[in-house]
Amino acid sequence: MDCVLLFSISAVLLCLSQALPATVRAAAPRVEHPSLIHSHSLTLYICSFHRCCPLIKVSFYSALMCSSAQQLNNCFDDSEISDMLLEGDMALPKTRNAMKCLNDYCKWPKSPSGQVEVPYTIANDFYDDEKAMIENAMKSIAAKTCIRFVLRRNQVDYISIENVLGCSSTVGRSGGKQQLSLSVNGCVSHGIIEHELIHSLGFHHEHTRSDRDQYVQINWQNIPEASAYNFQKKDTNNLNTPYDYSSIMHYGRTAFAIQYGKETITPIPNPSVQIGQRTEMSNIDIQRINKLYECGEHITHVQSYLF
C-alpha cells in the first residue's frame, strides 16, 4: 500500500477505530520524534499480532502518510530527519564516559586475527527486510573498519537489538546483554542504525565532545530544562581528530527545540554551516573508529566477510 492509497482510506480506518480499538488505534508521539511532538502531531497505527506500524502522521505543520518506517525519508526532507530522530538516545549513566574507561573495558576486544568481534542478536519481531537493513548497516561499518558484528553463539557480552520504544544504545561495551533499541516506528533506516551501532562501539554525540565550544554555540534558552542533559559537554578522548559537523553522531540544529524551528545548536564562527545527518558515516567517523580500535592493516573488504 503506498502513501496515496493510505490517505484515501484513512477516514474509513478512523471510523473503524471507534468499533475496533484493538485493530486501529491512535497513539501519542514517541520520544524519538521530538520535532513531531513540538508540532503537536498525532500518529495513527495499524496493529496486528505483536507489533504496530505507523499508518498516518498528522500535525499542524504537515500531513504525513507513511506505510512503513522505511518510508520516512520519502515523507520528510533531510533537515527534518536530522532534527527529529535520535535525540536522547544514549542509555548510559552520566558518570561514565566510554571514550575514557579503565583498562579499555568499555571497548570490544580484538580477536587473534586483529578484528574486533561484536556479538549480537536480533529480536524475532523484526520483519526480514528490517533485519536486512540492520545487517547492511553492520556491513557498511565492517567495510571501512576492523569491526565485525557476529551472530552471538554463547558469548557473555553482546548487543541485543530489539524493537522497543525509541532509538537508543549504551555507549561502548557495558558487559552482559546490552539492549540496542530500534523501534520499527521510525528507527529502522540505514543512518539511524549506524548511529546507534557507533554508540555501542564507544562514541558519544559529536556536539558533546570536550572542545565543542570552539565550534558550536549551544542555545540554552531554546532548550527545555528536561532536555538539557542531552547537550552537556563530556570529557571525551577526541583521538586527535577535528570537530566534524558532518558526523553521523552530530545533532541537527533544532534538536529538542522548545519551539518549532528554534535553533538549539548554532555552528561558529559560520552559522550557515550544515550540521547533523543520518545518511552514512563521515570520513572522520570512520577514522575515529579505526583509531580507537587500532585497526591498521586489519581492515578488509566486506565482500570477504560473512555474517
Topology (elements, then pairings):
Elements: H1 3-19, E1 24-27, H2 34-38, E2 42-48, E3 51-58, E4 63-65, H3 72-75, H4 78-84, E5 116-122, H5 128-144, E6 147-151, E7 158-162, E8 167-169, E9 177-182, H6 190-201, E10 216-218, E11 265-267, H7 283-292
Parallel strand pairs: 5-6, 5-7, 7-9
Antiparallel strand pairs: 1-2, 2-3, 3-4, 8-9, 10-11
Helix pairs in contact: 5-6
What can be said about this structure in brief?
This protein is of the alpha/beta class and 307 residues long. It has helices at residues 3-19, 34-38, 72-75, 78-84, 128-144, 190-201, 283-292, and strands spanning 24-27, 42-48, 51-58, 63-65, 116-122, 147-151, 158-162, 167-169, 177-182, 216-218, 265-267. Mean pLDDT is 74; it is low at 1-50, 53-87, 92-98 and 300-307.
Strand line-up in the sheet with most strands: 6-5-7-9-8
Unreliable parts: 1-50, 53-87, 92-98, 300-307
Radius of gyration: 20 Å
Helical content stands at 10-25%
- Mean pLDDT across the residues is 74
Order of secondary-structure elements? HEHEEEHHEHEEEEHEEH
- Coarse shape: globular
Count of alpha/pi helices: 7
**Percentage beta strand:** 15-25%
> Pairing-aware structural class of the strands and helices?
alpha/beta
Head-to-tail CA distance between termini? 32 Å
> Using DSSP, what is the number of strands?
11
Main β-sheet description: 5 strands, mixed
